[in-house]
Design a protein that fits this description.
This protein has twelve helices and six strands. It is an alpha+beta fold. The protein is elongated and about 80 Å long. InterPro entries: Zinc_finger_SWIM.
């Protein structure tokens, strides 16, 4: 059956495809054929897919590549790309013998588009195979697991901003300013940042990564393992400049909560530290 599908002649003219779509959609509301009927010739396959995705995002659904092929000179093989609704087809269980307790987005949606090279081979054209859905369209794609994915350009922006220690909220704001159609959520930004940092760590654990970075940046560190074990129970590290400051100013003001440091700016903290030092009457400070 699969060999027959691959060997089928997909060279169907656009008028017959429109008639087929109209026949199926007779009496069915929400036919989207007109949204994708165009005489435009796209410069490449990627431009065709980008044009389609720009329309479907506004309509409230997502398309995925169902099948594609490239002509290699063998009989029955032609260059084409078949796009369909993400909810098309049936869910295939990972373990067929075990019943699944989870739901699925698949509902055998028949919506399909087909792109193929133009007759002279210069550019691509789009044809509508079936233009309707058997499910309701989403009002918004915000939070959608597929629509919210970062493309290669957005991923590069996220990596660069992560390296400069920009917060996730500011990264998301930058992505939305660069792309008005961006529907990424803060959770997806956190996930992308974690994936990037996890790729840097490789097979090392978090503690091994920390020890490696302490050695790389020449921090002063000390660790102690549990008795009769290689499990680290205590770890201390400090920057060499902090040791120099401690030796130069051996009177240290300790603050029990970090939120006070955020509320009281460093300039204020310096003033309070000086005031505390000037009013201190202990023998160590007086010397």
């Amino acid at each position: 059956m699969d060999e027959y599908c691959y060997g089928m002649d997909f060279e169907i003219n656009s008028s017959r495809l429109s008639e087929f779509s109209s026949f199926i959609n007779e009496g069915v509301e929400g036919d989207l054929t007109n949204h994708f009927t165009t005489n435009e010739i796209f410069s490449s396959r990627e431009n065709l897919i980008e044009w389609v995705r720009g329309i479907v995002y506004n309509l409230g659904f997502v398309v995925v590549t169902i099948r594609s092929d490239k002509a290699t000179g063998q009989p029955g093989r032609k260059t084409f790309v078949l796009l369909g609704c993400e909810r098309g087809g049936k869910y295939r269980k990972y373990k067929p013998d075990q019943p699944s307790t989870y739901g699925t987005r698949k509902c055998e949606c028949p919506f399909q588009l087909r792109g193929k090279p133009y007759c002279n081979g210069d550019g691509w054209i789009l044809q509508v195979i079936c233009g309707y859905h058997n499910h309701d369209l989403a009002e918004t794609l915000v939070g959608h697991p597929y629509a919210g994915r970062l493309n290669s350009t957005e991923q590069a922006v996220l990596v660069d901003m992560t390296k400069t220690q920009v917060t996730s909220a500011n990264i998301l704001l930058t992505l939305k300013q660069n792309n008005d159609h961006n529907v990424t959520t803060i959770k997806q930004v956190y996930t992308a940042r974690y994936t990037y940092k996890r790729s840097l760590r490789g097979s090392r654990t978090e503690l091994q990564q920390l020890m490696m970075m302490l050695d790389r940046d020449k921090y002063i560190h000390w660790s102690r393992c549990a008795e009769d074990s290689e499990v680290v129970s205590d770890l201390f590290w400090t920057h060499p400049n902090a040791v120099k400051l401690l030796n130069a100013f051996n009177v240290v003001l300790l603050m029990d909560s970090t939120y006070k440091t955020n509320i009281l700016h460093p300039t204020r903290c310096n003033k309070y530290a000086r005031a505390a030092y000037s009013h201190c009457c202990c023998s160590q400070c007086s010397t």
